[in-house]
Every structure is written in C-alpha cells, then in structure tokens.
C-alpha cells in the first residue's frame, strides 16, 4: 500500500491522516503521475515522467507516433503493465488529450490526460 496522490498532493483521509491506496487504484495514480510529470524535472530521477508536454512542438503528422513513444517511455518502469494502444485527440488551441489503453494482471485499464 502507498499514500494516495492527487494533482501532486497527498490526499487527506478525513481523520487527520493520509489516505492509502493499493492494487489497481495505486497503479492508476502512478500512471497518471508518470504521464503528467515532465520527464527530467526530478534531478535525482531523470527517467521519471513523460515528454507528452512536447507534443505541441512537433509537426502534426508526427504527434501520434510521438505520443505512443512518450507514453511507452513514461510507463516502462511499471511492472506487469502493458500499453496496448495510445490515441491522440487534438482539440485546438494547442490542447490535446492522450488516452492510453493498457493491461495489468489480465485487466483492461484506460487513462486520459490533457496535454498543452
């Protein structure tokens, strides 16, 4: 079990402590953290995070394949997790959503993150 994180902050449990998570919930929290944290922004953990924030700097024809590569990089350290599919949906104004379909211990999981 680990401590629950939401938007980079620990989640209170309502009784003066911190909420704990485990299993699939903890995995999804780690996945979201790995996809939204900027790769290289943690000096002692340079491999932590993703480069999804760089998608807007690429030509449109390269963004889908780059999104696939960046998600795979960010989640490579998660044991038993396999990225099955990555889809990129651009919504204009430099915004996009990246959805990763994954399998973990025989279960199908999906997360969506917004990138600028």
Name of the CATH architecture: Roll
Q: Average the pLDDT over all residues and give the rounded result.
A: 88
Rg is: 15 Å
Q: What sort of overall outline do the alpha carbons produce when their principal axes are compared?
A: globular
Most strands sheet = 3 strands, antiparallel
Strand/helix succession:
EEEEHHEEE
Fraction of residues in helix = 25-40%
The percentage of residues in β strands lies in: 25-35%
Overall tally of domains: 1
> What is the spatial order of strands in the main beta sheet?
5-6-7
- The low-confidence runs, each spanning 5 or more residues with pLDDT under 50, are none
- Could you tell me the CATH topology label: Nuclear Transport Factor 2, Chain: A
Distance between the termini: 32 Å
Q: If helices are DSSP runs of H or I spanning 4 or more residues, what is the number of helices?
A: 2
Number of strands: 7
Which secondary-structure class do the elements indicate? alpha+beta
- The top-level CATH class is Alpha Beta
List the helices and strands and how they pair.
Blueprint: E1 2-3, E2 5-6, E3 9-10, E4 20-21, H1 23-36, H2 60-75, E5 81-92, E6 95-104, E7 107-115
Antiparallel strand pairs: 1-4, 2-3, 5-6, 6-7
């Amino acid at each position: 079990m680990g401590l629950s994180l939401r938007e980079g902050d620990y989640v209170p449990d309502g009784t003066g402590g911190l909420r704990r998570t485990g299993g699939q919930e903890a995995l999804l929290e780690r996945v979201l953290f790995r996809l939204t944290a900027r790769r290289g922004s943690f000096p002692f953990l340079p491999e932590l995070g993703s480069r999804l924030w760089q998608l807007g700097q690429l030509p449109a024809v390269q963004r889908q394949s780059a999104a696939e590569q960046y998600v795979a990089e960010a989640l490579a350290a998660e044991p038993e997790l396999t990225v099955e599919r990555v889809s990129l949906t651009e919504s204009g104004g430099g915004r996009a959503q990246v959805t990763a379909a994954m399998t973990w211990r025989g279960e199908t999981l999906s997360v969506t993150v917004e990138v600028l």
